[in-house]
Every structure is written in C-alpha cells, then in structure tokens.
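FAQ

Q: What does a record look like?
A: Structure on top, sequence underneath. For example:
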C-alpha cells in the first residue's frame, strides 16, 4: 500500500482518534514518520499504527500518561503481525531516532517516539 507521507505511511494512520470535530491535537512531526519508514524498510513487513497523535481528551480517555509524547505528535504505538514484540523492539533499536528516543514495550506491541533523548520502559504483564 502506498502512503501519502512516505512510501508506506499515510496521514490518516496517525490522526487522533477522538472523533471530535474540534480535536485540537498537535500536528504530526515528520521526524516520527521518517523514522517509522526507516523501521518499515529494515523490517520488510507492514507495520500497523494503533495510536499516533492524541489530543488531551483522547489521551485521557485511553489512559495515556499526562506527559505522553503522543500529545506532541512525536509518538506512535505500533505492531507487526510478522514479528514478536521483542523482535520489533530490536529492529526499532537500529533506527537512530528511536535508539536516541523513547521505546516502551507492552503486551500489544511497542511505543516509539523521537523525543531526542533515550527512554526505555517495559510494561508487559505477560513474559514469554
Ligand atoms: Zn482528538
Ligand atoms: Zn504510546
């Protein structure tokens, strides 16, 4: 599938999912999309964005942290059907903007962001 932002990613995949007409989410930062495309290229399989930009209301609704990087348009929650969460995380560590950014591990996949400094967390409840 061709994207309208990069080869594989489209703007609609990142937009806030609050459903409000007056959504006041921050703009999507292209550094995030560029890093995700680099990840997509090394992974070689499609990557699903389950959450991209969020306005405060939506972030609250989905239980996001108050200082969530999704509020700044620099974070995405992603998963890949062909890889385990840890495999996807390992690939993300190869992308400089994520290696020097935030990577969080969850049961459903990983969070990545381009905050410009290293942050890591592991919120899995199931360990394999
Ligand atoms: Zn919104
Ligand atoms: Zn996230």
């Amino acid at each position: 599938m061709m994207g309208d932002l990069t080869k594989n990613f489209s703007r609609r995949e990142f937009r806030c999912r609050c459903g409000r007409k007056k959504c006041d989410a921050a703009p999507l930062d292209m550094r995030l999309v560029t890093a995700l495309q680099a990840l997509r290229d090394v992974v070689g399989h499609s990557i699903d964005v389950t959450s991209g930009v969020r306005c405060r209301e939506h972030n609250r609704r989905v239980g996001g942290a108050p200082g969530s990087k999704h509020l700044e348009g620099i974070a995405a929650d992603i998963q890949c059907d062909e890889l385990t969460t840890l495999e996807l995380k390992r690939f993300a560590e190869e992308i400089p903007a994520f290696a020097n950014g935030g990577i969080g591990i969850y049961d459903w996949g990983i969070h990545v962001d381009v905050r410009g400094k290293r942050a890591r967390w592991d919120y899995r409840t199931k360990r394999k």
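Q: Is there anything notable about this one?
A: Residues 11-15+22-119 form a domain with the Muramoyl-pentapeptide Carboxypeptidase; domain 2 fold (CATH 3.30.1380.10).
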